[in-house]
């Protein structure tokens, strides 16, 4: 599966990825873990003696961008393991086994086993929130607590692809600098400036829109949960959602309320909730996983 549309596009994404990673302002290590489906890239930071916290980013982004405003604060309390999703726009590299038989739970199992992690807590944003829920459902014995940002409980018959098209088009088709700014504002709440006033974020995000092949994520199947499955993860899950998040407006918030999930809503935030109100979200994450 081709991750980038060209070698030039891949280089620009990696170059700006590294610039963003340098802005984390925390001591960190990068590591590649070989597995059935290819090589998974992880970034670790924080004291290895502290409780492990696994982080999953969304579709069309990566660990370097996703945790830019969170890594420093979280690493004071946890041993952070930020995973670049295989098939995503980070540094993970799928092989020929990354195909229709791909199994998210098996992929995560292999990464955790290589790190000698038995039971974990997980935080994820957007598609990363789905991965957190999926793993908690399929590996309850390995998952202590999960926290889902800019996500919802996966129920119903709506198509994730159709929802994304409603939100990302037409700007994503024509990723000029101005359209990139328009899209970031569309996705955000009142604090969109955390994206639009950062030259490196704008450069990286535009490079992703232009150069990342979104179909490379197609083998991560997002399937709806049954009522029984939803109930099985309710007590170990917290959702943090912005009221201005277009995904929340298109049904995500209503689903959380309807299924009586443990959720907190923030009127000033959008889909980039952990960037837009990072101090509040960092405190929520620290409190939730430390209690």
Automatic annotation (TrEMBL):
Protein name: Pimeloyl-ACP methyl ester carboxylesterase
The organism of origin for this protein: Kineothrix alysoides
GO terms for MF: hydrolase activity
Classification via Pfam families: Abhydrolase_1
Alphabetical keyword list: Hydrolase
GO cellular component term of the entry, any: membrane
Domain AB hydrolase-1, chain residue ranges per copy: 52-162
Keyword Hydrolase in record: yes
